[in-house]
Amino acid sequence: MDESARSKLLALFEGKLTRAMEVYLETCSRCGLCTPACHAHASMPLPRYSPAHRAEVVRRIYRKYFKAQGRILPGWGQAKALDDTAIEELKEAAYTCTGCRRCMLYCPFGIDTQQIVSIAKLLLIGASAEPETLTMLADMSVAKGQNVDAFKPRFLDGIRRLEVKVLERWKSEAAHPIPTEVEGADMLYVALAGAHSIIPAAAVFNAARENWTLSFFEAVNFGAFVGDPNKTKLILERIVNEALRLKVREVVICECGTAYRVMKQLSGAQPFRVSSITEVHARYIREGRIKVRAKGITRPVMYHDPCQIARNGGVMDEPRFILRTLCADYREISPEPNYNWCCGGGGGLVALGEETFDFRMKSSRIKADQIAEFGKCAPGDGGILVTACENCHTQLGNINTHYKLGLDVQFLSSMVADALVE
Ligand code: SF4
Ligand code: SF4
Questions:
Q1: Residue 235 burial (CB < 10 Å; 0-12/13-18/19+)?
Q2: CATH assignment of 3-129?
Q3: Whole-model pTM?
Q4: What is the position in ligand 2's atom list of the atom closest to the CA of 35?
Q5: Is 191 strand, coil or helix?
Q6: What is the pLDDT of residues 216-267, one digit of tens each?
Q7: Which segments of the chain belong to CATH 3.40.50?
Q8: Residues of CATH 1.10.1060 domain(s) within the chain?
Q9: From the CA of 166, how far away is ligand 2's center (Å)?
Q10: Whose C-alpha lies nearest to ligand 2, atom 8?
Q11: Pocket lining for ligand 1, CB < 6 angstroms
Q12: What is the tens place of the pLDDT at every residue in 76-103?
């Protein structure tokens, strides 16, 4: 790596040095309490999978260039030059961390390893060493925001076809069971690209007689997965601007953990509230706006808390309220939802597909054990594993097959739609 490339990367590093980040970088007693907290380490007990090791990869560069000792003493063991080897280490640290923040709960100083890892991700982008797929997907989302009119006709054609499917299954008095561009709607629903994210949601909104409208944009934020703050902001702003233009009161994010956390925590003060679809469904049931078959599901049901919705988003009671209403045999797999094991698919790992499959399966052994131990479901018992995040759903489906759990992996929103009583 030449000097000018290194200077460019160090400028990126410096830009991340807020006071909080400096505290995270300077405060680690190496007590190791976070080590067993990470699902990757718990599944594969190797030093390189401990949270403190991932942070140390970044810390050594910090000490080398931003601390006096590192600058003065070239041989100081706790410092490391930012070179091609360091880039490889940063890559492993960044893309073996799902950003679940379970380790933070165990650290006596509350060190946020995910924040430290965000420096690694930024340096990788600066060195053009980040996973190309994630950047490509983020760029496509940004381009859609800049040329939305070019996308609209095809999008609307697709929606009209989905409306037929909604009406095949559920009654609706609405002229359009999937409304778009409704100025003054109470709610803007931001879905993922896919019928499974739109059809059940539409059925429930219509049953609740909600005044809603579907966003033109997909909720997922690939800018956040790849750790690019500019692209994260541009992708987020598309939805914020749409919500402001339509003057909605509430933005509802589909079952996508990262999309929910980004919208909730990074959209700033806005004239609309931000909710997850799970919160909205729980509200409809509590307020009697929809009628569902109570205890109609008799198969054993377990819920996986998506890290970005539960631990990092605070939505833990609502899915349990919904499932205890719908199911006769709800089984808790995480007695303390805040401490639930990550599924191992976050941080962009699921989006990278086959490339990360081997690591995702090996690092999720502890998750498979948790499901088997607490769910007490043998293959053949008809157990259902439910979640409220697209990434988790894909990863849990992979875990289910890989570890031969014999479960049926479902989305919570689909279960609500299926339980609707006319
Ligand atoms: S944020 Fe999660 S994946 Fe990353 S180091 Fe901490 S526990 Fe491990
Ligand atoms: S628990 Fe906190 S202080 Fe202890 S090793 Fe982990 S990050 Fe460092």
A1: buried
A2: 1.10.1060
A3: 0.95
A4: 6
A5: coil
A6: 999 999 999 999 999 999 999 999 999 999 999 999 999 999 999 999 999 9
A7: 134-286
A8: 3-129
A9: 50
A10: 28
A11: 37-38, 40, 51, 54, 97-103, 113-114, 342
A12: 778 999 999 999 999 999 999 999 999 9
